[in-house]
Specification:
alpha/beta; Spore Coat Polysaccharide Biosynthesis Protein SpsA, Chain A; eight-stranded mixed sheet; two-stranded antiparallel sheet; 7 helices; 12 strands; binds cytidine-5'-triphosphate; binds magnesium ion
Length: about 230
């Protein structure tokens, strides 16, 4: 028997509306390379990742080719959840045992996070990286402060999120089509499985608005120290 096949599924089918730029953020340049190229290479260079599949938007083939050349890809859907599902459907008959689902918009992915996730999959069928909450969290009443939400039991969720492939595929199929989901672990939880927490990394912060490119450049150049 060979080792279990582990695939990285990088979702890059969004439009990046909140950046305000015409070019979707995953194809914009970060330190001279497209955002997508950074996380793609983090997976491609990891010894335990066997295959990387990129999910792109309709009509983004030329952008992908310019960013990465000829790589394996599939066209996604109108929402992140649909894009992940398209990727899982594309892979479903390939005997995949583990899948790591990752936002292309989180370009700076340390190998250590992948290591922690794969180790966690030895114990549970799902794992995700989290960061603690350091700010005081308030509920709000329109223009005024509401109550403070105790932050001890809270965490900020990042990607990649790692799964036993059949477990994630079944959870996606069981999820109501009309219901939105911002990540995959919540679907696995809803289907009744435990999701193990591993330590995330500030490098993994998502690029969401235009200003996030400047912060990511600082992180990339080591100007912003991580712990
Ligand atoms: N994504 C996707 N398919 C979609 C929507 C999002 O593959 N239909 C991907 C994005 O490309 C991104 C990740 O999911 O890598 C996280 O989504 P988000 O940060 O919301 O990116 P966008 O949807 O592109 O940005 P916005 O919401 O500002 O339009
Ligand atoms: Mg979005």
């Amino acid at each position: 028997m060979g080792h279990p096949t582990t695939v990285a599924l990088v979702v890059a089918a969004g439009n990046g509306t909140r950046t305000g730029a015409a070019l979707p953020k995953q194809f914009a340049s970060l330190g001279g390379r497209p955002v997508l190229a950074h996380s793609y290479r983090a997976f491609a260079s990891h010894p335990q990742i066997d295959r990387v599949l990129v999910v792109i938007g309709q009509g983004q083939q030329a952008l992908l080719a310019a960013a990465l050349g000829d790589v394996e890809c599939v066209v996604g859907g109108d929402t992140r959840r649909e894009s992940v599902l398209r990727g899982l459907e594309y892979l479903k008959n390939d005997g995949i045992s583990r899948v790591l689902v990752h936002d292309a918009a989180r370009p700076l992915l340390p190998h250590a996070v992948i290591d922690r996730l794969l180790a966690a999959l030895d114990e549970d069928v799902a794992a995700l990286p989290v960061l603690g909450v350091v700010d005081t969290i308030l509920s709000t009443r329109k223009t005024h402060a509401g109550d403070v939400v105790p932050r001890a039991g809270l965490a900020r969720v990042q990607t990649p999120q790692a799964f036993d492939f059949p477990t994630l595929f079944a959870a996606h199929q069981a999820w109501p089509a009309e219901r939105e989901a911002t990540d995959d672990a919540q679907m696995v939880r809803a289907a009744g499985s435990d999701v193990r927490l591993v330590e995330g990394d500030p490098m993994l912060e998502k690029i969401t608005v235009a200003n996030d490119f400047a912060t990511a450049e600082l992180r990339l150049n080591g100007a912003m120290q991580v712990r």
